[in-house]
Amino acid sequence: MMGLLQSSLITALPWLIASTGLSAGWWSVAMAAGMLPVVLGAPLWGRYADRQGSLRVLRGASLIVLLAFMLLLLVLAWQPVAMALMVFVVLTRLMHGIGAGGVFPAAQRLVVSGVDPGRWAARLAGLQVAVHLGRLAGPGLMVMAAVSGVPGALCLVWIAGVLCCLALARPAL
């Protein structure tokens, strides 16, 4: 889900620049702003996962990420004046970063939980593979933009993210 959403948004940057009138430099800053809460929040989320359980944190953080992406789509559809657009985009990216900061430590802890430490590297490598498959799938799904337009493709990507998140809603085995 994480790789899918982020790479789709990056793939859509030319359209975002053209349709919003905001510069490439500004969009770069907006995308980077979403990483600040990851840097600051990941250690806090990790400690919270240690206390409350990694699956619970993974579910909650994933919902925050999906909500942030949905809000970004709504802001893009609304197309407020430039200054308001800039503020709302940065706010949705910050919200994304808050959730993303929790997804990775919780997912990492979850995949090694109850596993012999000798198998941790293989389990963590599997998690990396999943993230990178999402990063590859994002631009692939954005090919749908040729048929549905970029907003439709971004909505399709969000739906795929929701389906990934619904897999987390299943009871833990």
Structural summary, described in words:
This protein is mainly alpha-helical and 173 residues long. Helix content is 86%, strand content 0%. The chain has helices at residues 2-11, 13-20, 24-33, 36-52, 54-78, 82-112, 120-142, 145-169. Helix 1 (2-11) runs parallel beside helix 7 (120-142), helix 1 (2-11) runs antiparallel to helix 8 and helix 3 crosses helix 6 (82-112). The protein starts with a helix and ends with a helix. The mean pLDDT is 91.
Rg, alpha carbons: 17 Å
Secondary-structure element string: HHHHHHHH
* Range of strand content: under 5%
Number of strands: 0
Residue-averaged pLDDT: 91
Structural class: mainly alpha
The N- to C-terminal Cα distance equals: 21 Å
Q: What does the overall shape look like?
A: globular
Low-confidence stretches: none
Q: Specify the number of helices.
A: 8
The major β-sheet equals:
none
| Percentage of residues in helical conformation | over 70%
